[in-house]
Amino acid sequence: MFRHTFSRKTFNKFIESTGYRISKFKTEPPPAHPAPLETFHSYACLRHNARRQEHLASLGLPIEGKTVLEVGAGAGDHTHFFIDRGCRVTVTEGRAENLAVLRERYPNLTVRELDMEKPQLPGDEKFDIVYCYGLLYHVNNPAEAIEFMAKRCRGMLLMETCVSYGSDLNVNLCDEDPENPTQAVSGKGCRPTRPWVLAELRKHFAHAYIPRTQPWLDDFPLDWTTPTPPGLVRSVFIGSREDLKNELLSPEVPAKQWRH
Question: Which residue of 40, 96, 116, 250 shows the fewest CB atoms closer than 10 Å?
Answer without folding.
Answer: 96
